[in-house]
Each structure stands twice: as C-alpha cells, then as structure tokens.
Design goal:
Elements (H helix, E strand, L loop, with lengths): L1 H4 L3 H10 L1 H28 L1 H21 L2 H22 L19 H12 L20 H13 L12 H17 L7 E5 L2 H20 L5 E5 L5 H9 L2 E5 L10 H7 L4 E7 L11 H11 L2 E5 L29 E4 L12 E5 L2 H5 L3 E3 L7 E3 L8 H38 L4 E3 L7 E6 L5 H10 L5 E3 L4 E5 L8 H17 L8 H10 L3 H15 L3
Parallel strand pairs: 2-3, 2-4, 4-5, 5-6
Antiparallel strand pairs: 1-7, 6-7, 8-9, 10-11, 11-13, 12-13
Helix pairs in contact: 2-3, 3-4, 3-11, 5-18, 7-14, 8-14, 9-10, 14-16, 15-16
C-alpha cells in the first residue's frame, strides 16, 4: 500500500484524459510485457533455468533451420534427405511378395471361401516378429490359447451387433454395463462412480479430457481451459489438447525416480486448469507417479484429477494381494475424478476395448454428445464413435468372466515377477542401468559409455527381439506379458551377448536405430521428424 500511495494518481489521470490514445497504447504494452514476464517467471519456476535456456536454444535453432529450409538450395537438400528416409521406410515395410496378388479394386467376381481364407492365412503368416514365443515387448497381450478360443466364439456370436441400438441388442447392453461395473469394482468405485467402454486407451483419455474441459466451461466459466501433465504422460493427452484446442503444460520428472515433480506440477496449476494427470504406470518407464500427493493437489486447487492406468490395467489393482508393494491408484483417493483402464492389455480382452471411469454421473454427462434438433431424430452417443463393434464388448466380458480374480492375481504374480527378474539382470550388467523405479510390468534401461543403447536395440533385433526405443533419456524398455515369462532367461542371455557385441565395436552402430533416434534427439527442428513420421504413416496405407 505504501508504494501505491506514492503514485501520483492525479497526474496519471490528467495525462490519460489529455492523451487517451497514447495512454491506451502504454497500458496495452505494459499489460503485454507484464503478462509475458509472468509467463516467463512461471516457466522458470516449473522447469528451471537450465531447461528453459535449452528449450529457448532449440526454439531459436529450429526457427533458423526452418528459415534455411525455405531457401531454394538448402531446402531442396533437406527435402531430398527426408524423401530418402521415407523411401527407406517404405522399402522396409511394403515388400513385394512374388506371386501375391495386390487387391486395389473390388474383385469383379465373388471369390470362393477357400480362396479368401487362403489369402488371409498367407497374410497372417507373413514374416514378422515372433510374438507367439514372447519376442515382442507388449504389443500382444495373450491370455492363452484356451481363452483365445473362447473370446473368438464370443466374437462370432455378437459379430453383427451394435451398441448404438440397445433395443435391437438388449443383451449386449447388459454385457457392456457389466464390463464397466466390474472394472469400477476393481478400482474401488462406489455406487456413485460410473463409466463407459471405449475403443482403447487413447479414446478413454480423450474422453476424460473432453469431460473435464466441458465441466470447466460450464461450471466455472473457463474460456481457455488447460491441463497439466507429467512429460512422461501418454501422448494421447497431447492429442486431446490438439483436438480440443486447449492448453497443455508438461511438467518435468525426477531424474532418478522418473516420477513427476509434484512441486513443479503445483506451480503449473492456474485459474484455467481443469485437469491434472498422474500415471499408474507410465508407458516409458513403468513408474507410478506420486498419486497420493497429486490427489492432495487436486483437492487443494479444486481441479480434476485423472489417473491413467491404461498400462497398469489389471496389474496395479492386484499388486498388494500378489505380495508386491501396493500403489493406491483408484477411487479410494477422494480427489480422483476419472480413471482410464485398458481391458485389452492385461485384462486379455481382444484389441479395441478400454474403460473410462468417473467419480459421478454428472462428470460422465460432460463426455456425452447429444443433439435434439437433427432431422434424423434425437441423436446421442457416449463416445466418439456412433456405431460400435458389439463383438469386442462381448469378448471382453467373456475374458473377464473366464479369468476371474484368481486368474488375474496369478498373472500379476507371474508378470511382475518376470519384470523383477529382468530388472535384476539388467542391474548386474555394468554397462547398463535401470531408468526410474518401475512398479508394474515394464522395465526400462539405458547404457553407459562406450555402449550405445540403440546399438543394443539393433543387436537384440538381430536375435529376434522387438524392444521399444525411448528418448529423453535414450533407453529401451520391455513390457513383460504372459508370453515373456517362459523366455525370460533367453532374454537375459541375449541382452548380455548384445552388450558385449556393442562394447567390442562401439563405432559399428552409427546407422540403423542410432541414426534414427540420435537424429530425432539432436535436430532442433522437430518438423523434420514430424515429416518422416507422417511418411511412416503414409506407408501403412501403401499397397
């Protein structure tokens, strides 16, 4: 107050009256400067000065590269290299098979069942990663041949069903409601808690973000909502932010544990924040964030709190009962407003099923889309899709009923036990170290000089393993599944051999994965990497 008292308000008022245009300009400039300064201070408090300076350098350097790319000579060179990278991807994926017909138009005449099944069998058996023998990280969450036969039967029974028409398929409506309620029960949901099925984890996350965005706009009058997520949160949150044109702040994680820095996350919350996020567990490193601390923040700041348990799914709820340290990741935390859980991962349901859960029906209503004025009638749908596949819902129900709590508990013991075994093996290799403090089915590991971790990835690939490359920090991870358990010793043997091979010839791995991921980590202009990634997606649809 003493500072304000020394201001000559009378003089300022007189100046404003006599020079309204200039006074307005001065006020606008002052507002802009103060706002940018406040944003700068907030950014530094969240990320730290070193990270801000590094980001600033990448932004400036990236801008310069984009400017250079617009010049005829340099731009042509860059585009040629991008085109070559995309062409290499296409050549590696879209391989012509001698004698195999390419179907680029509908056959003129009907094919016989035998011909169709022969084509499908050949396509099914095209050479790829030997996932059936546990050589793939994650990807295929197999519940066993007996369960697969049962879910296939369930799929066939409901092959033509569509949840959009509950009057036509009343039994399907019952199955879907029971799937949601069983998952809610698993996550300690009360009778007030509710949810919907979705097509997968990405849609579950997008729906949760939509519900909180609409909630913020309708109940708090927030015009420019934002969400706050750890940098290790799933990319689906970024997709949701882009789809809905909302703000998203990425918060750093502790370099040792890879858990989100709670204090930094709190500093990122502002009056427009509608949702904060924690993972149980993270995709990159299999780490559970400090969900109890995040719960307290959500209650303190009166914002939504989403737990992403898509990967943790049917593993995390059984940890304590299986004899592992418990992670409370459910509605026992009073600040939790939504949870995503993939039934098609460790629930062993067919791909295309997930559940998004809410603390109450009102929040779930904000997920829905309804329109009462359409000439086609009153239209309402719970998720993005209108028509949906009822067969995957029936198969999901069948998988959960067949496994039972006892089955899921045993799989938790086996799979997490496998992760611990692999983790301990990594810790015994001097050239490697575990990234973070894993709690679920995933273990990530990085390398020490002179071993390049992406060279290890290529050596493991030569031995038939398909591991997932991570970045920031550069590392690999394996998501253990039911199929990994019986081949854990083979993995450990091959990993040791791969490290020895890379250490013996550290300069022999400048191409392959190192070339791709090393380039992505160092190039300041991310649009170059984006173009290559878009080219990869284009290749998926090349005939």
């Amino acid at each position: 107050m003493s500072t304000l008292a020394r201001v000559d308000w009378q003089r300022i008022t007189a100046y404003t009256i006599n020079n309204p245009r200039q006074a307005f300009i001065n006020a606008a400039v002052a507002y802009f400067v103060l706002r940018q300064a406040a944003k700068g201070v907030k950014t530094v408090t969240i990320y730290g000065l070193q990270h801000v300076l590094s980001t600033l350098w990448r932004t400036v350097a990236g801008g310069l590269i984009r400017h250079v790319r617009r010049t005829p000579g340099a731009g042509a060179v860059v585009q040629r290299n991008i085109a070559k990278a995309i062409k290499d991807i296409e050549n590696s994926m879209n391989i012509d098979i001698p004698g195999e017909t390419k179907f680029v138009s509908i056959p003129e005449h009907p094919m016989s069942d035998e011909e169709i099944l022969a084509v499908l069998e050949r396509r099914q058996n095209e050479a790829g990663v030997d996932w059936k023998n546990g050589r793939a990280s994650g990807a295929v969450y197999h519940g066993g041949e007996e369960l697969a036969r049962l879910t296939n039967q369930a799929y066939a029974m409901f092959n033509l069903s569509n949840p959009l028409h509950p009057g036509v398929f009343p039994g399907l409506r019952r199955l879907e409601a029971e799937v949601v309620r069983m998952v809610l029960n698993l996550y300690n949901g009360s009778s007030e808690c509710c949810g919907t099925t979705t097509s997968g984890g990405t849609e579950s996350i997008i729906m949760a973000v939509r519900a909180h965005v609409v909630w913020g706009r309708k109940t708090r009058g927030i015009e420019r909502p934002n969400i706050v997520v750890p940098i290790t949160a799933h990319a689906a949150f970024d997709k949701a932010a882009e789809y809905f044109d909302i703000g998203i702040t990425h918060v750093p994680v502790d370099q040792k544990t890879q858990r989100v820095e709670v204090k930094a996350l709190e500093r990122a919350i502002d009056s427009d924040t509608v949702l904060i996020v924690g993972s149980s567990a993270t995709y990159p490193h299999g780490v559970a964030d400090d969900l109890v601390a995040l719960n307290d923040l959500a209650l303190k700041h009166k914002v939504g709190f989403h737990i992403d348990s898509c990967l943790g799914s049917f593993i995390m709820p059984f940890l304590k009962e299986a004899g592992f340290p418990e992670v409370v990741c459910d509605f026992r935390l009073p600040g939790v407003t939504s949870i995503s859980c993939d039934t098609h991962k460790y629930g062993f349901a067919p791909k295309g099923t997930s559940v998004v859960m809410y603390a109450n029906k009102q929040l779930r209503h904000y997920q829905y889309f309804t329109i009462a004025t359409w000439p086609g009638g009153i239209y309402a749908s719970p998720t993005i899709a209108g028509s949906r596949c009822g067969a995957v819902i029936a198969s999901c129900w069948a998988a959960m009923a067949k496994m039972g709590r006892d089955g899921y508990l045993q799989e938790c013991k086996n799979i997490v036990g496998c992760r611990i075994k692999l983790q301990r093996a990594v810790e015994q290799i001097p050239e490697l170290y575990v990234v973070g403090e894993p709690t679920s089915s995933v273990v990530a590991f990085a390398s020490r000089w002179p071993v390049n971790i992406y060279g290890v990835m290529d050596e493991m690939k030569h031995r038939g393993w398909d591991l997932n490359p991570m970045q920031d920090p550069p590392c690999l991870h394996i998501a253990c599944t039911r199929l990994t358990v019986p081949v854990a010793d083979e993995f450990i043997r091959d990993l040791n051999e791969s490290v020895v091979a890379v250490k013996a010839n550290p300069d022999g791995y400048t191409k392959g994965s190192q070339a791709i991921y090393g380039f992505a980590a160092t190039v300041p202009d991310s649009t170059i990497v984006d173009e290559v990634a878009q080219g990869f997606i284009d290749t998926l649809y090349a005939v």
